[in-house]
Amino acid sequence: MKMKQPEPFMFEGDDRAVLLLHGFTGHSADVRMLGRYLNSEGYTCYAPIYRGHGKSPEELVGVTADEWWEDVQEAYQHLKDKGYQKIAVVGLSLGGVLALRLAGNTPLQAVVTMCSPMFFDNEEQLTVGFRKFSKEYKQLEGKDDHTIEQELEQLLEDSKELFREIETSITRVKENVDMIYTPTLVVQATNDEMINPDSANYIYENVEADNKQIQWYENAGHAITFSKDKDQLHEDIADFLESLDW
C-alpha cells in the first residue's frame, strides 16, 4: 500500500512569522491545527519536515540528529529569504529542544517549547514510542505480523545510535539554556507519559530571559497539540506572541 507522504506547510499572513517544529517520529501535521489558529490571528506560519520524518522507520533511523538541526536552520533561512525579519519559533517535544538551540544563537522574537525534554531519562519510553510508530507504519504497509516483528527487532537495534545522538542533542541544549535571552513560553502537560515533566521547570528556571512564562495543562499528555486542552493551548500561545514587541 502506497501512503501519501506528508508535506511542509506555509500559511501566509502578515510580517510576523512563526516557525513550527514537530517532534521525533512526527511531521507537520502535529502542528497544523496550531498553525491554522495562529494564521487566523494574522501570523505567517511555516512548518518544515526534518529529514527521515513522514517516511518509513528505516528512513528515519538512516539520518542523524545533526541533519535535523541543519533542517531547522534551513527552515529559518527559508523565512528570511522570503523577507520575514521578525520570527518566533514554537517547537513540540524534540522540536522544542531544537527551538531552544536556535534561540541560543539566532535573533528571534520568541521561543515556545511544548513538552520538550531536558533530561534523557526516558529511553524506555522513547523505545516504546518508536516501536509503536514503526509497527503502525508497517501495518499500514499491509505486512503480516511475523514480518513486522522481524523488522521491528532490526529497527530497534538500528535505532540505538540515533537515540545516543538525541541524548547528545538534548544535553548540549540543556548545558547552554542559560545563554538564552529570548522571550520564552514553556508549555507542559501535567500528565506527560513520554518525558520528565520537570523539564519544563528546568527550562523556565534557567533561561535568562526577562520575559518568561510557564503554563501547565491538566488534561493533556505528551501529544499536547491533539489534547483536550488544545484550544486553550492555541489561545495561550497566541496571547503570549501578541504581548511581544514585534
From TrEMBL:
Annotated keywords: Hydrolase
Single GO term (MF): carboxylic ester hydrolase activity
TM regions (residue ranges): none
GO terms for cellular component: membrane
Coiled coil spans: none
Domain Serine aminopeptidase S33: 16-130, 162-227
Active site: 93, 192, 222
InterPro entries tied to this protein: AB_hydrolase_fold, AB_hydrolase_sf, Esterase_lipase, Hydrolase_4
The protein's name: Alpha/beta fold hydrolase
Native organism: Gracilibacillus salitolerans
